[in-house]
Amino acid sequence: MSSGTADEQARPGSSPAGRRPRRDAERNRRRIIAAARQAFADHGMDVSMEEIARRAEVGVGTLYRRFETRVDLVETVFLAKTHEYLAAAEDGLGAPDGWSGFVGYLTRMCELQAADRSLTDVLTVTLPDCPTMLRVRERLYAAQQALLERAQREGSLRADLVAADVVLLLLANAGVVQATGSTAPDAWRRTLALMLAALPAGAGPALPCPHGPESLSSEFQAPRAGRRPGLSELR
């Protein structure tokens, strides 16, 4: 006599043979996400889908069955991480004063860059097909602006610093991480110390006229010789 009802026996996927493909698919999905996360951290977002499949030990066809486009994979990998960056800014807003909040945020972002080279891409590359990530990134930029303005109102942060300068500081740190990550992995800490020495109110001469946020943003996104391709160019 059968131990299951007729409905249970007829239900698709209720048998061990039916459940196994789903388990295999979920296992492959987890392997792809883990491989992509590490590949992006090691090389940034321009790593190829073929390389991700190789690291995950799956075929390229399997990768594309799980993630139809590169954007789908990037959004899956980076949405949680983008929330982590937002949390760093919100933690800064909760600091007892503007200076410690701003310094804590900048320090944490540099730490995250040192651990994950794809951070700069996440912060600067346009992701037109990732509306959720775009919304989180907009919240991050708003919190970053609030950190800057709070410290300036309190008189601790130089008044001529603008939001676009924070992105420039992170880009500078990203360059140090990329150039020294394998030979001097803590060199970014000295770079950060040099940055922080220039940021208090009254530190050094006035800064040159800044790029506006719009022109700086378009500079990140415009293809140019020697520039790594952005996500939207790597479908």
Automatic annotation (TrEMBL):
Example of a GO MF term: transcription cis-regulatory region binding
Gene3D superfamilies: Tetracycline Repressor, domain 2
Keywords linked to the UniProt accession: DNA-binding, Transcription, Transcription regulation
Top-level taxonomic group: Bacteria
Keyword DNA-binding: yes
Pfam families noted in UniProt: TetR_C_43, TetR_N
Official protein name in the record: HTH-type transcriptional repressor Bm3R1
